[in-house]
Amino acid sequence: MSTAEATTRVPLILSDRINAMQESQTIAMAKKARAMAAEGVDVISLSFGEPDFQTPQYIKDAAKQALDEGYTFYTPVPGYLELRQAICDKFRRDNQLDYQPANIVVSTGAKQALANVVLSLVNPGDEVVVFSPYWVSYEEMVRLAEGVAVPLVGTLENEFKVTAAQLEAAITPRTRLIMYSSPCNPTGAVFSRQELAAIAEVVGRHPHVHVLADEIYEYINFVGEHVSLAQFEEVKERVITVNGFSKGYAMTGWRVGYLAARPEIAAACEKIQSQITSGTCSIAQRAALAALQGGRGSADEMVAAYRRRRDMVLDLVQDIPGFRTNVPSGAFYIFPDVSGYFGRATPAGPVIQTAADLALYLLHDAHVAAVDGSAFGAPNCIRFSTAAADEKLREAFIRIKDSLAKLG
Ligand SMILES: Cc1ncc(COP(=O)(O)O)c(C=O)c1O
């Protein structure tokens, strides 16, 4: 008997933990689009949250230099001291926040930083208030920690932003953590200073609650001011700020992110990381250091392009009846409410019942890949990434309009 045959006869029992976990919908849709493209279909993929820019040359050069200089050994678990120092300088320069290296943990992407925090703070049964629409992985991270995700839904009329009053009503004695991103993936909403001040006031009244502020899109901001919740003195100790290099420096594949937290929380995250992955890649850390030393100039150039594309896409979307959207203030997505199409029949017969049906219809009819909003806690919406070339975006929304016009 061959090994392959033997393997298929052994009953496989996966853990309850993994059976309960959903595959990332953004990655699932990207896979479908790739499979269609491999069959020769001209698919325009707007499903992935990835800058279409190359990493700036000076950062690539630093990586090459790191190899030549022999940065090939295990790294300290929380990251090279020099990089953590540069991250502290960045917090001081951009966010007026005073941290020391003991507050900082560098991780394999912001994703690992977020997971480290959730696993460090959440006990089974603890409630985690997740501002909704939310980034796909938040809910699964909470589930992995056996916590209970409590989505708190912002309305389209308020740019999908959760208000301080909503938050006050949602906090219970079991609430352990609050999670949100600003600028937000998927809505592009950016909390103002006033809104965060009101949220800080609520959190200040509940000393058992911590907040995980995901600021990975900090630099991709079209309104100007980025405010960190940790800037509010009354809550600073209980705010964990996560950021990284993937979006602002177009470094998705390098996998470097970081967090800033009080030293006990940073030490807890370091402990988890020491048992699961160790310190992140030596070469990528040296590249990240060069990125920070270069300031944010390259990010500003990319932001100008993202802004132009946002405006272009909003113009195109205005021409599509039944797409209701906010004006994103940051990040690179648009997130229209498409519920106006529910109940309409496709040319082949089946009726569109959900945003998932509509996303699949657009994939097969318009050959445009987007992600169903239910993955983000918003089942009436679809997320389109605007991180694609101008002509691709224009073509995609023309095709979408034509396909939607065929619905009965
Ligand atoms: C809101 C948000 N947080 C975190 C991440 C993860 O970033 P990284 O690539 O650094 O792991 C993403 C990536 O899409 C994101 O959109």
Q: What is the CATH architecture term of the largest domain? A: 3-Layer(aba) Sandwich
* Overall tally of structural domains: 2
Strand line-up of the largest beta sheet: 2-8-7-6-5-3-4
Write down the CATH class of the largest domain: Alpha Beta
pLDDT averaged residue by residue: 95
User: How much of the polypeptide forms β-strand, as a percent range?
Assistant: 5-15%
Give me the Rg, rounded. Answer: 22 Å
User: Secondary-structure element order, as H and E?
Assistant: HHHEHHEHEHEHEHEEEHHHEHEEEH
Bound molecules: pyridoxal-5'-phosphate
Count of DSSP E strands?
Answer: 12
Q: Number of helix segments?
A: 14
CATH topology of the largest domain: Aspartate Aminotransferase, domain 2
Characterize the biggest β-sheet: 7 strands, mixed
Q: Helix content range of the residues, please? A: 40-55%
Q: Sum up the overall morphology in one term.
A: globular
Query: Separation of termini?
Result: 56 Å
The CATH homologous superfamily of the largest domain corresponds to Type I PLP-dependent aspartate aminotransferase-like (Major domain)
- Secondary structural class: alpha/beta
Unreliable runs, pLDDT <50, ≥5 residues? none
